[in-house]
Specification:
It is a single chain. By secondary structure, the protein is mainly beta. The chain has one helix at residues 2-18, and strands spanning 24-32, 37-43, 49-55, 58-65, 69-76, 78-82, 90-95, 101-107, 110-117, 123-129. Helices cover 13% and strands 55% of the residues. The chain starts with a helix and ends with a strand.
Length: 131
């Protein structure tokens, strides 16, 4: 029983030894510009990649481990909906052609990467290693 307790304690202390202060950073993604909507791809906590469509501006933050890659892209998109004033009509909320989209990545409140796109359906991409 004593050996099992000692082994469990060694395993626990080994786990603590790997958890160093500063291994996780706060990563903030900001998306803005004069475009109204953007299709967004980013990596979030635990290495997951997410794709969403947002009305701009957008701010999101995650805790990401050091050594990982922070990645953010935003593409100007065409967004429509049924026109409530015209039966069978379509209202264009965003044409994907006009305007700009701008992305920034901050790690622990320090700007580390940014990009802007102004082309029709343009994509702004930014990335940085989390250190």
């Amino acid at each position: 029983m004593r050996i099992v307790t000692i082994l469990a304690l060694v395993a626990f202390l080994g786990t603590l030894a790997r958890v160093q202060p500063g291994e996780v950073r706060i990563v903030e993604y900001d998306i803005d510009g004069t475009a109204t909507y953007a299709g967004v791809t980013w990596n979030a906590a635990a290495g997951a990649t997410e794709q969403k469509q947002f009305k701009l501006p957008v701010h999101e933050s995650f805790r990401i481990a050091t050594g990982e890659l922070a990645y953010l892209s935003a593409q100007k998109v065409n967004v429509t909906r049924p026109d409530p004033l015209q039966k069978g009509g379509i209202e264009i909320l965003s044409d994907g052609v006009h305007g700009t989209v701008h992305v920034t990545i901050h790690i622990n409140w320090r700007l580390v990467s940014e990009a802007t796109a102004d082309a029709p359906f343009g994509i702004a991409k930014a990335s940085a290693k989390v250190e």
